[in-house]
Write a structure and sequence with these properties.
Blueprint lengths: L22 E5 L6 E5 L5 H18 L4 E3 L7 E5 L7 H9 L5 E6 L2 E6 L2 H14 L4 E4 L2 E3 L6 E4 L2 E4 L5 E5 L6 H6 L8 E3 L4 H4 L2 H4 L9 E2 L2 E2 L10 H17 L5 E3 L12 H10 L3 H14 L4 E6 L16 E6 L16 H13 L3 E6 L13 H13 L2 E7 L9 H13 L5 H13 L3 H17 L22 H17 L4 H24 L8 E4 L2 E4 L1 H16 L12 H15 L9 E4 L30 E4 L3 E22 L10 E7 L6 E7 L10 E22 L16 E9 L1
Parallel strand pairs: 2-3, 2-4, 4-6, 11-19, 12-15, 15-16, 16-17, 17-18, 18-19
Antiparallel strand pairs: 1-9, 5-6, 5-10, 7-8, 13-14, 20-21, 22-24, 23-28, 24-27, 24-28, 25-26, 25-27
Helix pairs in contact: 1-3, 11-12, 13-14, 14-15, 15-16, 16-17
Length: 750
Amino acid sequence: MKNLILSIIVIVTFASCNHQKSTLTITQNSKSDYTILLSLDADSLTQLAASELQDYIYRISSSRLMISKQLQKGRKHIIVGNELINDSSALNELNTLPEDCFIIKTLDDDIIISGTSDKTDLYAAYTFIDEYLGCRLLNPNEEFVPKNNTIIIPEINKTYEPAFSFRRILFPGMKDQKYRHWHKLETLDEWGSFVHTFNKLIDPEKYFEDHPEYFSLVGDHRISDAQLCLSNPDVINILKQNLAKEIRKNPYKKYWSVSQNDCYNYCECADCNDMYEKYGSVSGAYIFMANELASEFPDKNISTLAYQFTRSAPKNIKPSQNVNIMFCSIECNRSMPLADDPRSNGFVQDMKDWSSLTNNIFLWDYVVQFKNYLTPFPNFHVLQPNIQFFKQNNVNMMFQQGSGGNWSDMSDLKQYLIAKLLWNPNVNVDSIVEDYLTKYFGPSKPYIISYYKLAHSSLIDNQESEFLNIYGFPADYVDSYLTPNLLTQYRSLMDKAEESVKDDSLYLLRVLRTRLPVDFAYLDIALNKDFDEISYLNKNNGKNRLRPDMLKYLDRFIEISELTETTRINERNFITSDYKKYVLHKLQMMTKSNIAKGKTIKLLTKPSDIYPVGEEKALTDGLFGDLDFHNNWLGFQGNDMIIEIDLQKPELVKQISMNFLKAVNSWVFLPVEVVVEISKDGKNYSRAGSIEGDIEDKNYLVKSIPFNIEINPIKVQYLRVTAMSLKQCPEWHRGYGNPSWIFIDELIIE
């Protein structure tokens, strides 16, 4: 047995010859011999660790352990924190462990739960509650706590050390302090600034008018809302001066991002091009800049991006020791692990090149579909191998970007699993998923896990041909994991899951939210693809009629999204009620009789062949564009659209309707004006009506905008439709000077 020594400062001393027991009984029949022992000067987080242990043990067993700051003679102890440990081996280990580490050990009848700091004392307590008491914090608002009057644990001698020194996820859990501590996730407390900071440090509104030479030369003009001219010594000096001002406001912050804005348009001036050539990559100029700042502020880490045009590592220059490289995977495919995917060879090589230059690497990975949070996104099978790959390549800081504060497909499970992988990339993923789904879904778990496995296996079967894109749409995956047959199976599984928990409001709400991506994909593909199996339309005798059951399905989707407070579809704040309006408008267009269908259409201006959809045939094929310019949109780059229609005989015409796409971030603008002209002979045309487009709207939300032009009813055989384009991106836009686009989907004449 251990010897107990009482002094002015109470210290627990363990005999050098400890006898470990195979199991320890913490509570039996709701009674306990244990006291939670806390040092006199324990700070708030260590005190919280003790109170959380007390609370969970009580909730499990109905036994409330006393928390004491004095040794309780004749009692067994759960020792929280390291001040009262006098076991030399445990103390020596704690004193040599890196930051964020902790230990959980049993010594005779006592239990040590201690970290290297107050924060890690709390990490240790939550880990004990999770691993040894069987509790789970499933998401910030929901947890699993088992019920058992008797708590027995095995003997423990375990040291916990994270694989990455910094671990952060961008999911709803990050907003909750308890969730962060439970899952050992990090805040940005050490960061004085965080990514895309050029405009903050050299504000175009302040500097551009007098000093356009500070900013990117693109083509033959300088652009204010782009990047900086890093070959200009004045730019480097101003960065130093303005960064110094920011550091003085927060002198204790360790990391300061000095990094490119979230666009391309890097400087093309002769001096910058010389730097790119000298260093073998555009990134060389950015590392030169970061090194200059790192020399000016040697006690800070200067973080800069390896992102898009700066992703490739430079040659003939290395990042200084206090330059942090934020390496980003935005372009990569998610259907296969990066190291196994030939399409990711360039990224893999870039990762290896950077890791040969530095070990100060912050990895920014992307793990949801940003344009469609509410779309099945079965990428769980690549999470572990990708994180392991990053660990193998000198990455010591990990950030996994999810759907922010918004729910996305299975995001509760995804954030939970990723948090565990960031601590230990070698955990058993299958066991974690199985355990989570069992505790989260209860009786409906067999159906949810069947959906999970079916979606993943269907993608994996097609992984070599499928590109799982973080900016994809449901229609992109109809040849792999979102075929009509699979969607029908998913919907059936969700129906069964819902039925199995219909009398349990908690489980039912979880199932309803989880089924939203299935419902969204089913409805969106029914709207945007021409499948007989799933469609909003009954097609009889060449006429399209709406199916009432699909309209009810759409209504229920909206109701569930609002009931579960899961209404945001994408990162641009497109919500489900707006989606319904978009669907109903599109269905209205799809069910109209179109006089132009099958008639002669001539394109007088040539559409772009970058996105081929059948040229003039695309205007009356009955396929309407979705919210992605790749699908069913006819595009004109830097050019007006002029169409002539021969109805083959005089027809009574009263309205011409079409949709144009607005996607400003992709250089897609509405027409300045759309004009309809009519003719009796096909040669001499007169203006019949027009409508102007809103070209001042700078919002990046992608929209399909209806253009309906009513004319005085008239019998006419020939019509001309002209959509006047901006021709080039406007001066306020990052693409200024480059050709702009207009996209039209369908032309309907009534």
